[in-house]
Amino acid sequence: MNKKIPMRQCVGCREMKPKRELIRIIRTAEEELLIDATGKKNGRGAYICPNRDCLKKAVKSKGLERSLKIAIPQEIYQDFEKEMEKVETR
């Protein structure tokens, strides 16, 4: 029996990809935005490809803001960009 692979849509490129390949960004009940490396934290989640292009597209289209239902300040996007660099170099 084949195990079903959970698929999620990237908020940047809008492509469906396996959940494991994407980075989960969550909004907690305290309105904090975090990168959820484990994929198990509580909060409203949005998925994004681990590359800067998708992050830029998500910023431009406000895809991240829409899916997390929160306004995102520019500093947070810069933090995410720094985090992405760490993930990309792994």
Description:
This protein is α+β, with helices and mostly antiparallel strands and 90 residues long. It has 3 helices and 5 strands, in the order E-E-E-E-E-H-H-H. A hairpin with a 6-residue loop joins strand 1 and strand 2. The longest helix is centred in the C-terminal third of the chain and has 16 residues.
Strand content: 15-25%
Evaluate the radius of gyration. 13 Å
Order of strands side by side in the largest beta sheet?
4-3-5
Name the structural class. alpha+beta
Largest sheet: 3 strands, antiparallel
- The helix/strand order is EEEEEHHH
Principal-axis shape: globular
The oligomeric status of these chains comes to single chain
What is the strand tally? 5
- Termini separation comes to 33 Å
How many distinct helices?
3
- Residue stretches low in confidence (pLDDT < 50, at least 5 long) are none
The proportion of residues forming helix, as a percent range, comes to 25-40%
Brief write-up:
By secondary structure, the protein is α+β, with helices and mostly antiparallel strands. It contains three helices and five strands, in the order E-E-E-E-E-H-H-H. About 35% of the residues lie in helices and about 20% in strands.
